[in-house]
Design a protein that fits this description.
With 691 residues, this protein is an alpha/beta fold. The protein is built from 22 helices and 31 strands.
Length: 691
């Protein structure tokens, strides 16, 4: 039979409108909805009724009724969390070894739960299954919000929910970071909303909206469930905003908060805006009567030694009967004793000896930069905050000279076949997947994309992670700070602890940082010792430190160090031919050593990036010069370096500019019209003479 329009009802109200083919059953006409078959009456289905079931032989259909209920094992009740648990099939619960996960999965939809989620206990999986279960029970996906800690986590959660539902409903769930949720509220309810780039201001502005605009509260009353991830790291104004969200939703809106106090590695800030409290978010949730639930089973590793770190060492981290120093020493001793290997001082680290999927963790950014510089001849990746976003280079390869607003699938595929060379294809999606991604963000229809819409989305300050590399670089072991690898894991982890004897009396954070680093490992943990060289940073967080012979080591390659105007701009190159030559260099030499930055009079003494033949490849931004002057002032001088050697590129990325970006006016064609260009993954811990 042809498809019919079907109204979906629950609780006496319409929750969805769908199109489905009608099926004839022993109980009459029926349609499928959320993997179940429902009786159809007057082109409507009622989720308060009962779905139709197949018999065991699968030959006939009957409607379930109260006379023939499922066996007791089919439903898990949660007396402590209310009297109306979700009815979850036992086959969905069998995958959970942990009773806590099963209890969470079947908890009432309106329950407010604080989930203690130690590392490796399947928190993300349980959260996604919880959301999927709510949707299967009739919750409107549009009215489920998930607040995730990082954009990478947002991507993972969305994929897992889509996999759990095997339908398009996952796309309707609002999954975003707290900052993204805040901006969404501002742009939707405030005519004065301006995206300034300051996350703290955005949070403060949203808090004011909650106080001043009653429509915000009315809107949030529509939510059916709110999931909050990494609750232990939501502090200051963000904690105040999270509490405002919770207070604003209706009494029937469930709230599930995942947290692990042993992994709280972002210290509480007292200087945040009004509304902050001296008590933590978790303490305030407990005072609001949130039910407690704990995940107990460690899924991440099968190693007895690593399990002991995950479980037993965690107890030392949280043991308030010990002093800060005692906790720090016990945790360090546990990690060293239970590690699979000792790898000595960080100076002996050789990336060439490590597997490509290894994760090397260090406490300090300067240590990561220094080890990266010492291993410049070995392919590796970086993972730290403050690095540029890395849209994949296939975007620039395809669209660098595109001046049309609309591109057909046929034209795109022809460009792909002619331009995607091996070096780019190695880390690109397939042609079919790439087209699908473009249609998702800028599709006129399945066969045409609007390039203005594509540029609007990918040209954001934080582009969709589907188009980006998760790390800075595409191949080899990952060098990372512990903070930047929060929530990530690897089969083999090399953890470099602070030098023996270093204690941190002022807070517990360093103890928790060690614990977080050790619990990234799935199969093998090796422990070494970092050096005791400290570094400082500029206001923009550029790392620098004094070196020998009066020189200073400093970081090159931060987010705004090299921008579109410095790569194909009129202010950076004398003509279009010179800019094109530089672009071709990056395309043909994505990984290259021997670069240096040098002040040039013709550039008003800005730094140009030169290769070993003195060819200009780009120009560093004014913000880089500003940081050097800040360092000089701290050193009591006014002179900044003339040449900065030992720079390199560890790959290439795309820069995508929105159609209204004022920077376009400074660019040569075709980039002025297209808005797509190549940029190097520039990095270095260079040294220069100040004064």
């Amino acid at each position: 039979m042809p498809d019919v329009n079907v109204t979906v009802k629950k609780g006496g109200r319409i929750i969805d409108q769908i199109q489905r083919p009608v099926r004839e059953t022993a109980s009459g006409q029926a349609v499928t909805y959320r993997r179940q078959l429902w009786p159809l009456s007057n082109n409507s289905i009622d989720l308060d009724g009962h779905p139709i079931e197949f018999d065991k032989a699968g030959r006939s259909l009957r409607q379930a009724n109260h006379v023939d209920p499922p066996p007791p094992s089919k439903v898990i009740t949660v007396p402590s969390l209310g009297t109306s648990p979700l009815s979850i099939a036992s086959e969905l619960l069998e995958e959970f070894v942990d009773d806590g996960q099963a209890e969470l999965l079947s908890a009432p939809s309106a329950a407010r739960i604080l989930v203690d989620a130690p590392p490796g206990t399947g928190k993300t999986h349980a959260a996604c299954q919880r959301v999927a279960a709510l949707i299967r029970e009739g919750a409107n996906p549009n009215r489920i919000w998930i607040v995730s800690f990082t954009r990478t986590a947002v991507f993972e959660v969305r994929n897992r929910i889509a996999s759990a539902l095997e339908s398009a409903e996952a796309a309707s769930v609002r999954i975003a970071t707290l900052d993204s949720h805040a901006w969404s509220m501002q742009s939707g309810f405030s005519a004065d909303a301006v995206l300034t780039g300051s996350h703290d201001k955005s949070i403060d502005d949203t808090l004011r909206l909650f106080r001043d605009n009653p429509e915000v509260a009315d809107y949030l009353q529509r939510l059916e469930h709110l999931v909050i991830d990494e609750g232990q790291d939501i502090v200051g104004a963000r904690a105040a905003l999270t509490l405002a969200f919770i207070d604003a939703v209706g009494p029937d809106c469930g709230v599930t908060v995942f947290a692990d106090e042993a992994q709280a590695i972002y210290a509480f800030s007292e200087e945040d805006s009004e509304g902050s409290s001296s008590s933590t978010l978790l303490e305030q949730l407990r005072s609001k009567g949130f039910n407690s639930l704990k995940l107990n089973h460690v899924y991440r590793t099968q190693s007895p030694k690593l399990r002991s770190i995950f479980v037993d060492t965690r107890k030392h981290v949280l043991d308030r009967s010990l002093t800060v120093k005692q906790r720090s020493e016990l945790v360090r001793e546990d990690i060293i004793r239970l590690a699979d290997a000792s790898v000595g001082p960080i100076a002996e680290l050789k990336l060439a000896d490590l597997a490509a999927d290894s994760l090397v963790l260090m406490r300090r950014r300067a240590d990561v930069l220094e080890r990266s510089a010492w291993n410049a001849g070995v392919l590796h990746r970086l993972r730290m905050s403050g690095l540029p976003p890395c849209p994949r280079p296939w975007l620039a390869a395809i669209f660098c000279d595109c001046r049309e607003q609309f591109i057909s699938r046929v034209a795109f595929e022809a460009l792909w076949d002619s331009r995607i060379v091996d070096t780019i294809a190695r880390n690109s999606p397939s042609k079919q997947v790439a087209w699908k991604l473009l249609v998702e963000v800028g599709g006129q229809d399945a066969e045409t994309i609007d390039m203005n819409r594509v540029r609007e989305v990918i040209g954001r300050t934080n582009p969709p992670i589907l188009f980006c590399s998760p790390d800075f670089g595409d191949e080899g072991p990952i060098l990372s700070t512990i903070h930047a690898s929060k929530g990530r894991e690897a089969a083999k982890v090399y953890l470099y602890l602070p030098p023996t004897g270093e204690t941190f009396e002022e807070s517990d954070e360093e103890t928790r940082v060690m614990f977080v680093g050790a619990t990234r490992a799935r199969e093998m943990l090796a422990v070494g010792e970092s050096n005791n060289q400290y570094a400082t940073s500029t206001l923009s967080q550029r790392v620098w430190r004094r070196a020998r012979k009066g020189k200073v080591q400093l970081e090159v390659g931060r987010r705004n160090d090299i921008l579109a105007s410095g790569l194909v701009g009129r202010s950076a190159f004398p003509n279009q031919s010179a800019a094109m030559k530089a672009q071709l260099y990056w395309l043909e030499n994505p990984v290259c050593n021997g670069l240096r930055a040098k002040k040039e009079e013709s550039l008003q003494w800005h730094f140009s990036i030169l290769d070993d033949e003195n060819e200009r490849l780009g120009v560093l931004d004014q913000s880089f010069d500003d940081d050097l002057r800040e360092i000089a002032q701290a050193l009591g001088t006014w002179r900044t370096p003339y040449v900065l050697p030992h720079l390199r590129s560890i790959g290439i990325r795309s820069i995508v500019l929105r159609p209204d970006d004022p920077v376009l006016e400074d660019l040569y064609e075709p980039w002025r019209s297209s808005g797509f260009l190549f940029a190097p993954l520039l990095t270095g811990f260079t040294s220069g003479k100040f004064g």
